[in-house]
Amino acid sequence: MVTNPRFRILTFIGLGALMVYNLLPFYWMTMSSFKTTLEVISFPVTFMPDAPTLDAYRSIWMQEGFPVYFWNSIVTSGSTAILSSVFGVFAAYGFSRFAFRGKALLMTVMLGSQMLPGILLVGPYFEIMSIIELYNTRSGLVLALTTITLPFSVWMLKGYIDTLPVEIDQAAMIDGASRLQTLLMVILPNILPGLVATMTFAFLLAWGDVLWALCLISEPAVQPMTLGVLRLVGQFRVEWAQIMAATVIASSIPAFFYVILQRYLVQGFAGSAVKD
Asked: How many angstroms separate the first and last alpha carbons of the chain?
């Protein structure tokens, strides 16, 4: 362990600078959301609002229809997280506990699919959703986002299940449990941190998505918050105060979930880094 005082001072200075670098955009975003439209674009800039106001929040909530966008994001992101995790658990258990022909190839294909740029898949997804009449629906967007997040969910959950000895499955089945009961009553409680981390990843990816929503949703009534924020950018005017207020609201949900689930997230990501 390094005990050099100079090294410790430099370390704290570096960590402090890194913290400021990461938190400054959030501070600026929050303060700007309480400014008037003119103060946001005024020069020289102000780091604190001269006359704090909630006009930006009132405007987006009452005039811009953001309650609808907010609800759409909650439904889309929550459904994506649930579906991705449910299908991911069953697939991961099969890949972890069963030997079958083509297993390695399928895992490789899933991993390779994560390397494809999303823009390459937009066209085929648009055609498929149009054919099956799911274009401009929340269901179609959830289905598309689930297929994007599912490979990661399978890989991550398989890694957790691999750390559990096969003997616990055998012991449960000797006691009369079926494969499904073994998965639900024995495996899942032991991989709960990993499951929470996987669900959080899928939720955040769907919550912050712009590309897929922009290509698969054109009806304002079913658009998520990300597209609602884009609507504030006009051809001749940008509502910066409202954009900042909308961004604060959009950021509050992931922050809330992190605070509530941070214990599981830390255990989940730590467990994914250490394998037997």
From this structure: 27
